[in-house]
Amino acid sequence: MRIVVAHPDAATRQQWCSEISAQLPGATAFGWQPGDSGGVADYAIGWRPGAELFAAVRGLRAFFSTGAGVDNVLGQGGLPADLPLIRLEDAGMAQQMAEYCSYEVIRLYHQRARYEQQQREHIWRELEPPARAGFGVGVMGLGVLGAAVAGTLAGFGYPVRGYSRSPRDIAGVTCFSGAAALPGFLAGCRVLILMLPLTPATTGLVDGDFLARLPRGAYLVNVARGGLVIEDDLLAALDSGRLAGATLDVFGQEPLPSGHRFWDHPRVRVTPHIAAITLVAESARQVAAKIRQLELGEPVTGLVDRSRGY
Question: Is residue 265 annotated as a catalytic residue, yes or no?
Answer without folding.
Answer: no
